[in-house]
Design a protein that fits this description.
This protein has one domain: YbaK protein, CATH 3.90.960. Helices cover 21% and strands 30% of the residues. The protein contains four helices and ten strands, in the order βαβββαβαβββαββ. Strands 1, 2, 3, 5, 6, 7, 8 and 9 form an eight-stranded mixed beta sheet that branches. Its EC number is 4.2.-.-.
Length: 149
């Protein structure tokens, strides 16, 4: 991020196993909608991809598959996600992935004033302008959000 001259803020909190985006948002006094989850998924050929989604939403894998032109999408198992991304689950960042993967971002994320996204370790979020997801990561906007139950 620094090598690109990008303005960002750092936000550290005490990580809790299985606390997810909601724990991070609560700990830092942030809107869960502005805390963005980095989800490693795979298609029917076990090819990995990343989805960036609001903390208070889930991914419609059927809608995502339809939008990107594949038959099936499913979340990777934690060990597989870690192998693809190079990050521990709970600390996955879309920046600095171990191997190149297509990155998709829920379109409404791009309309937010500021987002908070994992910075590469558990309990560490970066605050930044959402447009950077498109410019730095070449994230492709998609419509695949479901309200969380």
């Amino acid at each position: 991020m620094q090598k690109h001259g990008v303005a960002y803020t750092e936000h550290v909190y005490d990580y809790v196993d299985h606390g997810g985006a909601s724990w991070g948002a609560e700990s830092l006094g942030l809107s869960l909608h502005s805390v963005i989850k980095t989800l490693v998924m795979q298609n029917e050929k076990s090819e990995p991809l990343v989805v960036l989604m609001h903390g208070d939403c889930e991914v419609s894998t059927k809608q995502l598959a339809r939008v990107i032109g594949t038959r099936h999408i499913e979340p990777c198992k934690p060990d597989v996600a870690q192998r693809h991304s190079g990050y521990l689950v709970g600390g996955t960042s879309p920046f600095g992935l171990r191997k190149p993967m297509p990155i998709y971002v829920e379109r409404s994320v791009l309309g937010l004033e500021r987002i908070f996204i994992n910075g590469g370790r558990r309990g560490y979020l970066l605050g930044l302008a959402p447009g950077l997801l498109e410019t730095l990561l070449k994230a492709q906007p998609v419509d695949c959000a479901l309200a969380a139950p």
